[in-house]
Write a structure and sequence with these properties.
seven-stranded mixed sheet; alpha/beta; D-Maltodextrin-Binding Protein, domain 2; 3 domains; six-stranded mixed sheet
Length: 537
Protein backbone atom coordinates (compact mmCIF):
# COMPACT_ATOMS: atom_id res chain seq x y z
CA UNK A 1 0.00 0.00 0.00
CA UNK A 2 2.29 2.76 1.23
CA UNK A 3 6.06 2.84 1.33
CA UNK A 4 7.62 1.10 4.31
CA UNK A 5 9.66 3.51 6.34
CA UNK A 6 12.94 3.58 4.52
CA UNK A 7 15.10 6.67 4.85
CA UNK A 8 12.96 8.59 2.39
CA UNK A 9 9.64 7.69 3.92
CA UNK A 10 11.01 8.36 7.39
CA UNK A 11 11.58 11.88 6.19
CA UNK A 12 7.96 12.08 5.07
CA UNK A 13 6.67 10.91 8.42
CA UNK A 14 8.81 13.30 10.40
CA UNK A 15 9.32 16.09 7.91
CA UNK A 16 9.78 19.55 9.35
CA UNK A 17 7.00 21.35 7.55
CA UNK A 18 6.35 25.05 7.68
CA UNK A 19 2.82 26.07 6.71
CA UNK A 20 2.22 29.41 5.11
CA UNK A 21 -1.37 29.41 6.28
CA UNK A 22 -3.21 28.29 9.38
CA UNK A 23 -6.62 26.76 9.85
CA UNK A 24 -8.67 24.29 11.77
CA UNK A 25 -6.59 21.25 12.54
CA UNK A 26 -3.38 23.13 11.73
CA UNK A 27 -0.10 21.55 10.73
CA UNK A 28 2.79 22.23 13.05
CA UNK A 29 6.43 21.42 12.48
CA UNK A 30 7.68 17.92 13.20
CA UNK A 31 11.28 17.25 14.19
CA UNK A 32 13.17 14.41 12.58
CA UNK A 33 15.16 12.47 15.21
CA UNK A 34 17.84 11.94 12.60
CA UNK A 35 18.48 15.66 12.26
CA UNK A 36 19.95 16.25 15.69
CA UNK A 37 16.78 16.92 17.72
CA UNK A 38 16.90 15.80 21.35
CA UNK A 39 14.82 12.62 21.55
CA UNK A 40 16.10 11.33 24.88
CA UNK A 41 13.58 10.68 27.64
CA UNK A 42 13.14 13.27 30.39
CA UNK A 43 11.02 12.41 33.41
CA UNK A 44 7.67 14.17 33.35
CA UNK A 45 7.77 14.78 29.59
CA UNK A 46 5.98 12.42 27.23
CA UNK A 47 7.37 12.16 23.71
CA UNK A 48 4.21 11.71 21.67
CA UNK A 49 3.84 10.92 17.98
CA UNK A 50 0.55 12.66 17.21
CA UNK A 51 -1.87 13.35 14.36
CA UNK A 52 -1.26 16.91 13.16
CA UNK A 53 -4.91 17.87 13.62
CA UNK A 54 -4.47 17.51 17.40
CA UNK A 55 -2.52 20.76 17.52
CA UNK A 56 -5.84 22.38 18.50
CA UNK A 57 -5.64 20.48 21.82
CA UNK A 58 -2.78 22.62 23.09
CA UNK A 59 -4.98 24.58 25.50
CA UNK A 60 -6.29 21.38 27.08
CA UNK A 61 -2.75 19.95 27.27
CA UNK A 62 -1.47 23.10 28.98
CA UNK A 63 -4.25 22.69 31.51
CA UNK A 64 -3.33 19.02 31.92
CA UNK A 65 0.29 19.91 32.64
CA UNK A 66 -0.79 22.30 35.40
CA UNK A 67 -2.97 19.59 36.98
CA UNK A 68 -0.70 16.56 36.56
CA UNK A 69 2.83 17.86 36.00
CA UNK A 70 2.99 15.85 32.77
CA UNK A 71 4.17 17.76 29.71
CA UNK A 72 3.39 16.49 26.21
CA UNK A 73 6.18 16.94 23.66
CA UNK A 74 4.40 16.28 20.35
CA UNK A 75 5.82 15.37 16.97
CA UNK A 76 3.06 16.17 14.48
CA UNK A 77 2.66 13.78 11.61
CA UNK A 78 0.12 12.10 9.36
CA UNK A 79 -1.87 9.24 10.85
CA UNK A 80 -1.00 6.64 8.23
CA UNK A 81 2.70 7.56 8.21
CA UNK A 82 2.84 7.35 12.00
CA UNK A 83 1.17 3.94 11.96
CA UNK A 84 3.86 2.53 9.69
CA UNK A 85 6.64 4.17 11.72
CA UNK A 86 5.37 2.37 14.82
CA UNK A 87 4.82 -0.97 13.09
CA UNK A 88 8.38 -0.88 11.71
CA UNK A 89 9.84 -0.47 15.23
CA UNK A 90 11.52 2.84 14.33
CA UNK A 91 9.45 4.68 16.93
CA UNK A 92 10.91 2.53 19.75
CA UNK A 93 13.14 4.57 22.03
CA UNK A 94 12.21 7.85 20.33
CA UNK A 95 8.61 8.09 21.50
CA UNK A 96 6.70 7.02 24.59
CA UNK A 97 3.19 7.21 23.19
CA UNK A 98 1.17 7.68 20.05
CA UNK A 99 -1.98 9.76 19.76
CA UNK A 100 -3.67 9.26 16.42
CA UNK A 101 -7.18 9.94 15.22
CA UNK A 102 -7.61 6.17 15.08
CA UNK A 103 -5.61 3.01 15.70
CA UNK A 104 -7.71 1.01 13.23
CA UNK A 105 -5.16 1.29 10.44
CA UNK A 106 -2.33 0.52 12.85
CA UNK A 107 -4.02 -2.72 13.90
CA UNK A 108 -4.03 -3.97 10.30
CA UNK A 109 -0.26 -4.36 10.46
CA UNK A 110 0.66 -7.67 12.14
CA UNK A 111 3.87 -6.16 13.55
CA UNK A 112 2.12 -3.36 15.40
CA UNK A 113 0.18 -5.22 18.09
CA UNK A 114 3.20 -6.06 20.23
CA UNK A 115 4.43 -2.44 20.16
CA UNK A 116 1.39 -0.73 21.68
CA UNK A 117 -0.44 -1.04 24.98
CA UNK A 118 -3.02 0.79 27.11
CA UNK A 119 -5.19 2.27 24.36
CA UNK A 120 -7.45 4.88 25.97
CA UNK A 121 -10.07 6.67 23.81
CA UNK A 122 -10.13 10.37 24.72
CA UNK A 123 -12.83 11.86 22.46
CA UNK A 124 -14.51 11.23 19.12
CA UNK A 125 -15.43 12.94 15.87
CA UNK A 126 -17.27 11.37 12.93
CA UNK A 127 -16.60 12.07 9.28
CA UNK A 128 -19.21 14.52 8.04
CA UNK A 129 -20.19 16.61 5.06
CA UNK A 130 -20.13 20.39 5.45
CA UNK A 131 -22.38 21.95 2.80
CA UNK A 132 -23.05 25.58 1.96
CA UNK A 133 -26.50 26.57 3.21
CA UNK A 134 -27.51 27.78 -0.25
CA UNK A 135 -26.56 24.40 -1.73
CA UNK A 136 -28.62 22.51 0.87
CA UNK A 137 -31.60 24.69 -0.01
CA UNK A 138 -31.04 24.31 -3.76
CA UNK A 139 -30.87 20.51 -3.45
CA UNK A 140 -33.93 20.40 -1.21
CA UNK A 141 -32.11 18.31 1.38
CA UNK A 142 -33.28 17.62 4.90
CA UNK A 143 -29.88 17.50 6.68
CA UNK A 144 -30.80 14.73 9.10
CA UNK A 145 -32.09 12.51 6.25
CA UNK A 146 -29.25 12.78 3.70
CA UNK A 147 -27.54 9.55 2.58
CA UNK A 148 -24.31 8.94 0.65
CA UNK A 149 -26.48 7.82 -2.27
CA UNK A 150 -28.14 11.24 -2.34
CA UNK A 151 -24.73 12.91 -2.29
CA UNK A 152 -23.65 10.66 -5.18
CA UNK A 153 -26.79 11.54 -7.15
CA UNK A 154 -26.17 15.27 -6.65
CA UNK A 155 -22.60 14.89 -7.92
CA UNK A 156 -23.68 12.89 -10.99
CA UNK A 157 -26.28 15.56 -11.78
CA UNK A 158 -23.56 18.21 -11.69
CA UNK A 159 -25.15 19.92 -8.69
CA UNK A 160 -22.47 19.31 -6.04
CA UNK A 161 -18.70 19.73 -5.87
CA UNK A 162 -16.54 19.16 -2.80
CA UNK A 163 -13.08 18.97 -1.27
CA UNK A 164 -11.55 16.02 0.61
CA UNK A 165 -8.12 15.15 1.98
CA UNK A 166 -5.91 12.53 0.32
CA UNK A 167 -6.81 9.10 1.80
CA UNK A 168 -3.26 7.84 1.22
CA UNK A 169 -1.86 10.46 3.61
CA UNK A 170 -4.70 11.62 5.84
CA UNK A 171 -6.96 9.62 8.14
CA UNK A 172 -9.90 11.96 7.56
CA UNK A 173 -9.64 11.21 3.83
CA UNK A 174 -9.26 7.48 4.43
CA UNK A 175 -12.24 7.45 6.80
CA UNK A 176 -14.27 9.39 4.24
CA UNK A 177 -13.30 6.91 1.51
CA UNK A 178 -14.41 3.99 3.68
CA UNK A 179 -17.68 5.76 4.52
CA UNK A 180 -18.50 6.51 0.87
CA UNK A 181 -17.49 3.01 -0.31
CA UNK A 182 -19.64 1.41 2.38
CA UNK A 183 -22.61 3.62 1.64
CA UNK A 184 -22.50 3.18 -2.14
CA UNK A 185 -21.81 -0.57 -2.03
CA UNK A 186 -24.56 -1.34 0.47
CA UNK A 187 -22.08 -3.24 2.66
CA UNK A 188 -23.74 -4.56 5.78
CA UNK A 189 -20.50 -5.17 7.68
CA UNK A 190 -16.78 -4.45 7.26
CA UNK A 191 -15.89 -3.75 3.64
CA UNK A 192 -14.73 -6.69 1.53
CA UNK A 193 -12.95 -6.77 -1.84
CA UNK A 194 -16.28 -7.75 -3.40
CA UNK A 195 -17.95 -4.66 -1.90
CA UNK A 196 -15.24 -2.39 -3.30
CA UNK A 197 -15.43 -3.96 -6.75
CA UNK A 198 -19.22 -3.71 -6.77
CA UNK A 199 -19.09 0.00 -5.95
CA UNK A 200 -16.25 1.06 -8.29
CA UNK A 201 -18.54 2.49 -10.95
CA UNK A 202 -20.44 4.66 -8.49
CA UNK A 203 -17.24 5.60 -6.67
CA UNK A 204 -15.65 6.84 -9.89
CA UNK A 205 -18.74 8.95 -10.51
CA UNK A 206 -18.66 10.23 -6.93
CA UNK A 207 -15.06 11.40 -7.18
CA UNK A 208 -15.74 13.43 -10.32
CA UNK A 209 -17.19 15.91 -7.85
CA UNK A 210 -13.94 16.25 -5.90
CA UNK A 211 -12.44 19.55 -7.02
CA UNK A 212 -10.13 20.20 -4.06
CA UNK A 213 -7.56 17.88 -2.48
CA UNK A 214 -5.10 18.24 0.39
CA UNK A 215 -2.61 16.34 2.52
CA UNK A 216 -4.15 17.62 5.77
CA UNK A 217 -7.53 18.60 7.21
CA UNK A 218 -6.20 22.02 8.23
CA UNK A 219 -4.94 23.07 4.79
CA UNK A 220 -8.15 21.79 3.21
CA UNK A 221 -10.16 24.09 5.48
CA UNK A 222 -7.90 27.03 4.67
CA UNK A 223 -8.03 26.37 0.91
CA UNK A 224 -11.83 26.14 1.03
CA UNK A 225 -12.11 29.45 2.87
CA UNK A 226 -9.74 31.12 0.40
CA UNK A 227 -11.23 29.79 -2.81
CA UNK A 228 -14.90 29.28 -2.01
CA UNK A 229 -15.13 27.40 -5.29
CA UNK A 230 -16.67 24.12 -4.06
CA UNK A 231 -20.08 23.48 -2.54
CA UNK A 232 -18.98 21.24 0.31
CA UNK A 233 -16.17 19.64 2.30
CA UNK A 234 -15.82 16.05 3.50
CA UNK A 235 -13.94 16.29 6.78
CA UNK A 236 -14.21 15.61 10.48
CA UNK A 237 -17.28 17.07 12.12
CA UNK A 238 -15.01 18.90 14.58
CA UNK A 239 -13.07 20.62 11.77
CA UNK A 240 -16.25 21.73 10.02
CA UNK A 241 -17.75 23.18 13.20
CA UNK A 242 -14.46 24.89 14.05
CA UNK A 243 -14.51 26.48 10.59
CA UNK A 244 -18.00 27.83 11.25
CA UNK A 245 -16.80 29.33 14.54
CA UNK A 246 -13.44 30.69 13.36
CA UNK A 247 -14.17 31.71 9.77
CA UNK A 248 -17.96 32.15 9.75
CA UNK A 249 -18.28 29.76 6.81
CA UNK A 250 -21.91 28.91 7.62
CA UNK A 251 -21.61 25.26 6.60
CA UNK A 252 -24.47 22.91 7.32
CA UNK A 253 -22.86 19.88 8.95
CA UNK A 254 -24.40 16.61 7.73
CA UNK A 255 -23.65 13.13 9.05
CA UNK A 256 -25.08 10.86 6.31
CA UNK A 257 -27.86 8.67 7.58
CA UNK A 258 -26.45 5.43 6.16
CA UNK A 259 -23.32 5.68 8.27
CA UNK A 260 -19.89 7.18 8.82
CA UNK A 261 -16.52 6.21 10.26
CA UNK A 262 -15.68 7.90 13.55
CA UNK A 263 -12.26 8.83 14.92
CA UNK A 264 -11.86 7.96 18.61
CA UNK A 265 -8.39 9.47 19.28
CA UNK A 266 -6.94 6.76 21.57
CA UNK A 267 -3.95 7.86 23.64
CA UNK A 268 -1.73 4.79 23.37
CA UNK A 269 1.48 3.93 25.19
CA UNK A 270 4.30 2.16 23.40
CA UNK A 271 5.60 -1.02 24.99
CA UNK A 272 9.15 0.35 24.60
CA UNK A 273 8.39 3.37 26.82
CA UNK A 274 10.21 3.63 30.19
CA UNK A 275 8.18 2.80 33.30
CA UNK A 276 8.14 6.45 34.38
CA UNK A 277 6.66 7.38 31.00
CA UNK A 278 3.96 4.75 31.36
CA UNK A 279 3.00 6.16 34.74
CA UNK A 280 2.96 9.68 33.30
CA UNK A 281 0.79 8.46 30.43
CA UNK A 282 -1.70 6.91 32.80
CA UNK A 283 -1.86 10.12 34.83
CA UNK A 284 -2.41 12.16 31.69
CA UNK A 285 -5.17 9.97 30.28
CA UNK A 286 -6.93 9.88 33.67
CA UNK A 287 -7.02 13.67 33.63
CA UNK A 288 -8.07 13.90 29.96
CA UNK A 289 -11.07 11.69 30.76
CA UNK A 290 -12.03 13.78 33.79
CA UNK A 291 -15.24 15.85 33.51
CA UNK A 292 -13.18 19.05 33.65
CA UNK A 293 -10.97 18.12 30.71
CA UNK A 294 -13.78 16.52 28.71
CA UNK A 295 -15.85 19.69 28.99
CA UNK A 296 -12.88 21.82 27.94
CA UNK A 297 -11.99 19.70 24.92
CA UNK A 298 -15.53 19.52 23.55
CA UNK A 299 -16.04 23.26 23.93
CA UNK A 300 -12.64 24.19 22.48
CA UNK A 301 -12.40 21.66 19.64
CA UNK A 302 -15.99 20.45 18.98
CA UNK A 303 -14.96 16.84 19.49
CA UNK A 304 -17.39 14.65 21.33
CA UNK A 305 -16.65 13.67 24.95
CA UNK A 306 -16.37 9.98 25.76
CA UNK A 307 -17.54 10.43 29.34
CA UNK A 308 -21.35 10.06 29.34
CA UNK A 309 -21.92 12.62 32.09
CA UNK A 310 -20.32 15.43 30.05
CA UNK A 311 -22.62 17.36 27.73
CA UNK A 312 -21.31 17.79 24.14
CA UNK A 313 -20.59 21.34 23.03
CA UNK A 314 -23.40 23.40 21.55
CA UNK A 315 -23.79 22.58 17.86
CA UNK A 316 -23.03 18.87 18.21
CA UNK A 317 -26.13 16.92 17.22
CA UNK A 318 -27.10 14.18 19.68
CA UNK A 319 -29.10 11.94 17.31
CA UNK A 320 -27.55 8.57 16.54
CA UNK A 321 -25.96 7.57 13.26
CA UNK A 322 -24.84 4.16 12.05
CA UNK A 323 -21.17 3.58 12.86
CA UNK A 324 -19.36 1.99 9.92
CA UNK A 325 -16.59 -0.52 10.67
CA UNK A 326 -13.05 -0.25 9.39
CA UNK A 327 -11.95 -2.81 6.74
CA UNK A 328 -11.09 -6.07 8.43
CA UNK A 329 -7.97 -6.85 6.43
CA UNK A 330 -4.91 -5.10 5.03
CA UNK A 331 -5.68 -6.39 1.53
CA UNK A 332 -9.05 -4.62 1.45
CA UNK A 333 -7.51 -1.38 2.70
CA UNK A 334 -4.70 -1.69 0.16
CA UNK A 335 -7.11 -2.36 -2.69
CA UNK A 336 -9.37 0.54 -1.78
CA UNK A 337 -6.50 3.01 -1.58
CA UNK A 338 -4.92 1.74 -4.78
CA UNK A 339 -8.21 2.11 -6.62
CA UNK A 340 -8.66 5.65 -5.36
CA UNK A 341 -5.12 6.68 -6.21
CA UNK A 342 -4.90 5.27 -9.71
CA UNK A 343 -8.47 4.90 -10.99
CA UNK A 344 -11.17 6.73 -9.01
CA UNK A 345 -9.86 10.22 -8.30
CA UNK A 346 -9.28 12.94 -10.87
CA UNK A 347 -5.77 12.77 -12.36
CA UNK A 348 -2.98 15.16 -11.38
CA UNK A 349 -1.26 17.71 -13.56
CA UNK A 350 1.91 19.20 -12.07
CA UNK A 351 4.70 21.46 -13.27
CA UNK A 352 7.98 21.07 -11.38
CA UNK A 353 9.85 24.40 -11.63
CA UNK A 354 13.38 23.34 -10.70
CA UNK A 355 16.30 25.63 -9.88
CA UNK A 356 19.35 24.38 -11.77
CA UNK A 357 21.34 27.62 -11.49
CA UNK A 358 25.10 27.58 -10.91
CA UNK A 359 24.71 27.45 -7.12
CA UNK A 360 23.08 24.01 -7.43
CA UNK A 361 26.31 22.48 -8.70
CA UNK A 362 27.54 19.42 -6.78
CA UNK A 363 25.71 17.89 -3.83
CA UNK A 364 22.57 20.02 -4.14
CA UNK A 365 21.97 18.97 -7.74
CA UNK A 366 22.65 15.35 -6.83
CA UNK A 367 20.02 15.53 -4.08
CA UNK A 368 17.52 17.05 -6.52
CA UNK A 369 18.12 14.25 -9.03
CA UNK A 370 17.70 11.61 -6.33
CA UNK A 371 14.48 13.21 -5.05
CA UNK A 372 12.94 13.24 -8.54
CA UNK A 373 14.04 9.68 -9.24
CA UNK A 374 12.49 8.62 -5.94
CA UNK A 375 9.08 9.83 -7.12
CA UNK A 376 9.21 7.49 -10.11
CA UNK A 377 9.42 4.36 -7.94
CA UNK A 378 9.13 1.27 -10.10
CA UNK A 379 6.43 -0.12 -12.35
CA UNK A 380 5.29 -2.36 -9.49
CA UNK A 381 5.55 0.21 -6.69
CA UNK A 382 2.89 0.13 -3.98
CA UNK A 383 0.31 2.89 -3.59
CA UNK A 384 1.85 6.27 -2.81
CA UNK A 385 5.39 5.32 -3.87
CA UNK A 386 5.37 6.74 -7.40
CA UNK A 387 3.62 9.14 -9.74
CA UNK A 388 0.00 8.11 -10.17
CA UNK A 389 -1.56 6.48 -13.20
CA UNK A 390 -2.87 9.15 -15.63
CA UNK A 391 -0.68 11.82 -14.00
CA UNK A 392 0.85 14.52 -16.21
CA UNK A 393 4.31 15.53 -14.99
CA UNK A 394 6.16 18.50 -16.50
CA UNK A 395 9.80 19.19 -15.61
CA UNK A 396 10.81 22.82 -16.10
CA UNK A 397 14.45 23.33 -15.02
CA UNK A 398 15.64 26.94 -15.00
CA UNK A 399 18.64 29.14 -14.43
CA UNK A 400 18.72 32.62 -15.94
CA UNK A 401 15.68 31.42 -17.91
CA UNK A 402 13.71 28.22 -18.41
CA UNK A 403 16.08 25.73 -20.03
CA UNK A 404 13.59 23.18 -21.33
CA UNK A 405 10.05 21.91 -20.86
CA UNK A 406 9.53 18.14 -20.84
CA UNK A 407 6.12 16.58 -20.18
CA UNK A 408 5.37 12.93 -19.42
CA UNK A 409 1.98 11.30 -18.80
CA UNK A 410 1.83 8.01 -16.88
CA UNK A 411 -0.17 5.63 -19.06
CA UNK A 412 -1.73 2.83 -16.95
CA UNK A 413 -1.04 0.42 -19.82
CA UNK A 414 2.65 1.37 -20.10
CA UNK A 415 3.78 3.13 -16.93
CA UNK A 416 7.43 2.38 -17.55
CA UNK A 417 7.73 4.67 -20.56
CA UNK A 418 6.82 7.84 -18.64
CA UNK A 419 8.66 6.86 -15.46
CA UNK A 420 11.82 6.00 -17.39
CA UNK A 421 11.53 9.31 -19.24
CA UNK A 422 11.30 11.28 -15.99
CA UNK A 423 14.32 9.42 -14.60
CA UNK A 424 16.31 10.18 -17.74
CA UNK A 425 15.36 13.86 -17.64
CA UNK A 426 16.29 14.07 -13.96
CA UNK A 427 19.64 12.40 -14.60
CA UNK A 428 20.38 14.89 -17.37
CA UNK A 429 19.90 18.03 -15.27
CA UNK A 430 22.92 20.33 -15.15
CA UNK A 431 23.70 23.48 -13.16
CA UNK A 432 24.37 26.84 -14.80
CA UNK A 433 23.18 30.44 -14.86
CA UNK A 434 21.48 32.81 -12.44
CA UNK A 435 18.11 32.36 -10.68
CA UNK A 436 14.99 33.53 -12.53
CA UNK A 437 12.28 32.41 -10.10
CA UNK A 438 9.41 34.70 -11.09
CA UNK A 439 9.92 34.50 -14.85
CA UNK A 440 9.96 30.70 -14.59
CA UNK A 441 6.76 30.65 -12.54
CA UNK A 442 5.09 32.81 -15.16
CA UNK A 443 6.12 30.30 -17.80
CA UNK A 444 4.70 27.46 -15.68
CA UNK A 445 1.31 29.18 -15.44
CA UNK A 446 1.37 29.85 -19.18
CA UNK A 447 2.15 26.17 -19.81
CA UNK A 448 -0.88 25.10 -17.77
CA UNK A 449 -3.13 27.52 -19.64
CA UNK A 450 -6.16 29.32 -18.28
CA UNK A 451 -7.69 26.35 -16.50
CA UNK A 452 -10.59 24.15 -17.55
CA UNK A 453 -8.60 20.93 -17.17
CA UNK A 454 -10.32 18.03 -15.43
CA UNK A 455 -7.27 17.50 -13.22
CA UNK A 456 -5.81 18.64 -9.93
CA UNK A 457 -3.27 21.21 -11.13
CA UNK A 458 -0.34 22.54 -9.12
CA UNK A 459 3.14 23.99 -9.44
CA UNK A 460 6.08 22.84 -7.31
CA UNK A 461 8.91 25.36 -7.02
CA UNK A 462 12.30 24.16 -5.77
CA UNK A 463 15.05 26.77 -5.41
CA UNK A 464 18.23 27.11 -3.38
CA UNK A 465 18.56 30.88 -3.68
CA UNK A 466 16.96 34.27 -4.18
CA UNK A 467 15.60 35.69 -7.42
CA UNK A 468 18.51 37.29 -9.34
CA UNK A 469 17.27 37.42 -12.94
CA UNK A 470 14.17 38.07 -15.00
CA UNK A 471 10.88 39.31 -13.55
CA UNK A 472 10.68 40.86 -10.10
CA UNK A 473 8.20 39.96 -7.35
CA UNK A 474 5.89 42.88 -8.10
CA UNK A 475 5.74 41.92 -11.77
CA UNK A 476 4.81 38.35 -10.89
CA UNK A 477 2.14 39.58 -8.47
CA UNK A 478 0.57 41.66 -11.25
CA UNK A 479 0.80 38.73 -13.67
CA UNK A 480 -0.88 36.38 -11.19
CA UNK A 481 -3.63 38.88 -10.40
CA UNK A 482 -4.39 39.13 -14.11
CA UNK A 483 -4.88 35.40 -14.60
CA UNK A 484 -8.41 34.10 -15.19
CA UNK A 485 -10.12 32.65 -12.13
CA UNK A 486 -9.37 29.06 -13.18
CA UNK A 487 -5.70 29.95 -13.59
CA UNK A 488 -5.48 31.53 -10.14
CA UNK A 489 -6.86 28.30 -8.66
CA UNK A 490 -3.49 26.60 -9.31
CA UNK A 491 -1.39 26.84 -6.14
CA UNK A 492 2.40 27.02 -5.95
CA UNK A 493 4.10 24.78 -3.38
CA UNK A 494 7.59 26.22 -2.82
CA UNK A 495 10.34 24.17 -1.17
CA UNK A 496 12.78 25.97 1.11
CA UNK A 497 16.20 24.54 0.26
CA UNK A 498 19.83 25.60 0.52
CA UNK A 499 20.08 29.40 0.72
CA UNK A 500 16.61 30.25 -0.54
CA UNK A 501 14.76 33.20 0.96
CA UNK A 502 11.98 32.08 3.32
CA UNK A 503 10.11 35.39 3.09
CA UNK A 504 10.22 35.31 -0.71
CA UNK A 505 8.87 31.77 -0.87
CA UNK A 506 6.25 32.38 1.81
CA UNK A 507 4.97 35.29 -0.26
CA UNK A 508 4.66 33.10 -3.36
CA UNK A 509 2.79 30.44 -1.39
CA UNK A 510 0.52 33.01 0.23
CA UNK A 511 -0.63 34.83 -2.89
CA UNK A 512 -1.20 31.63 -4.89
CA UNK A 513 -2.91 29.69 -2.09
CA UNK A 514 -0.12 27.15 -1.73
CA UNK A 515 2.02 26.05 1.18
CA UNK A 516 5.71 26.31 2.01
CA UNK A 517 7.65 23.11 2.68
CA UNK A 518 10.97 23.14 4.52
CA UNK A 519 13.78 20.94 3.16
CA UNK A 520 16.65 22.54 5.07
CA UNK A 521 17.02 20.05 7.95
CA UNK A 522 18.64 16.68 7.29
CA UNK A 523 20.19 15.07 4.26
CA UNK A 524 16.96 13.36 3.20
CA UNK A 525 14.60 16.29 3.71
CA UNK A 526 14.41 17.25 0.01
CA UNK A 527 13.13 13.74 -0.77
CA UNK A 528 10.66 14.13 2.08
CA UNK A 529 9.43 17.53 0.89
CA UNK A 530 8.72 16.24 -2.62
CA UNK A 531 6.85 13.25 -1.23
CA UNK A 532 4.91 15.27 1.35
CA UNK A 533 3.65 17.57 -1.40
CA UNK A 534 2.12 14.54 -3.13
CA UNK A 535 -0.85 14.75 -0.76
CA UNK A 536 -1.71 18.17 -2.17
CA UNK A 537 -1.56 17.26 -5.87
Amino acid sequence: MRRKLTGTAMAVALLAVTACTGGAGGDDAAKDPGSGADTSYHKGTLRVLASSELSDMQGVLDQAEQKTGVKVQPTWTGTLDAAELIASGKADGKYDAVWLSSNDYLRLDPGAGERITNETPIMSSPVALGVKAATVQRLGWQPDQVTWSQVHQAVVAGKLTYGMTDPVRSNSGFSALISVASGLSGAQSALTDADVNRAKGKLKEFFTGQKLTSGSSGWLATAYTRRGSVDALVNYESVLLSMNRDSDTGLTVIRPKDGVVTADYPFTLLTSAPQDARESGQALTSYLRSPEAQQALTEQTFRRPVVPSVRPAAGLATDKRRELPFPGSRSVADGLLNSYENQLRRPSRTVYVLDTSGSMQGERLARLKDALAGLTGTDESATGERFRDREEVTLMPFGSEVKQVRTHTVDPGNRGAALDGIRADAKGLSASGNTAIYSSLREAYSHLGGGGSDAFTSIVLMTDGENTAGSKAAEFDSFYAGLPEDGRATPVFPILFGDSDRAELEHIAQITGGRLFDATSGAESLDGAFEEIRGYQ
